[in-house]
Amino acid sequence: MAAPQRMVVASCFAALGLVSGCPSAEAPTDGDAEHAAVEAQEALENEEAPMPSSPLTAGQEVFDLSALAHTGQRVELGRFLERPVVVYFCPSDRAQLCTDLALALKQQWLELNAHLSMVFAVTPEPTVVHRDFATEHELPHLFISDQSGVVHRLFGLAPGVATSYLIGTDRKVLRVLPTQSGADHVAELRRALSELQLLRDPYPL
């Protein structure tokens, strides 16, 4: 596979003091965020990148992503790869399946954050929707707006699907997880981390 190329996507960052390693900044207005989102999407669409013809599977490499946070700062995927990350796709934030998953991740965040560097949520909704949803529920993970569908295509997916990817520090897919009900999905994620021997002691002696 070709070397990873820098992808620019628009996103909403639910920092709220819960995400480590991310500098704080004053949040822009909705207009600023949407303007930045449009610019980022246009830049992304001008990139020439080979798109997979089918959904990515275990062992395949994910293109590098550079996401625009709701703070107006750019958050690069590479910054989070000291540990595995999860990227999950949903048709909308407020779809019952996706809301349940987001809340289940929040409930288990302290444990998951010991083993994962970040969780990214991707839907076709605009940035402001993500920011409102994440703020309402005080969610600790990052939401990416994919109105153009480019991020979905980079994973070989059609917009509206519900699936999750566990990605290793080398940007290769470790597991593809069906997006189940929230508690079941988190349990499946923990099982995958255990089987891959990626569970870490959060309090080493």
Distance between the termini: 40 Å
The CATH homologous superfamily is called Glutaredoxin
Query: How many separate helices?
Result: 6
Oligomer category: single chain
* SSE series: EHEEEHHEHEHEEH
Low-confidence stretches: 1-28
Q: Tell me the total number of β-strands.
A: 8
| CATH fold call | Glutaredoxin
So what's the CATH class? Alpha Beta
Q: Give the overall average pLDDT.
A: 76
Please give the CATH architecture: 3-Layer(aba) Sandwich
What would you call the structural class? alpha/beta
Helix content: 25-40%
Content of β-strand: 15-25%
Q: How is the largest sheet built, in terms of strand order?
A: 3-2-1-6-5-4-7-8
How many separate domains?
1
What is the compact description of this entry?
By secondary structure, this protein is of the alpha/beta class. The protein contains six helices and eight strands; from the N terminus they run E-H-E-E-E-H-H-E-H-E-H-E-E-H.
Describe the 3D structure:
By secondary structure, the protein is α/β, with parallel strands linked by helices. It has a single domain, classed as 3-Layer(aba) Sandwich (Glutaredoxin), CATH 3.40.30.10. It is 30% helix and 20% strand. It is built from six helices and eight strands. It has helices at 30-45, 96-107, 109-112, 127-137, 150-154, 182-195; strands spanning 7-13, 65-68, 74-76, 85-89, 118-123, 142-145, 163-167, 173-178. An eight-stranded mixed sheet has the order 3-2-1-6-5-4-7-8. Strand 1 (7-13), helix 1 (30-45) and strand 2 (65-68) form a beta-alpha-beta unit. The chain is globular. Mean pLDDT is 76; it is low at 1-28.
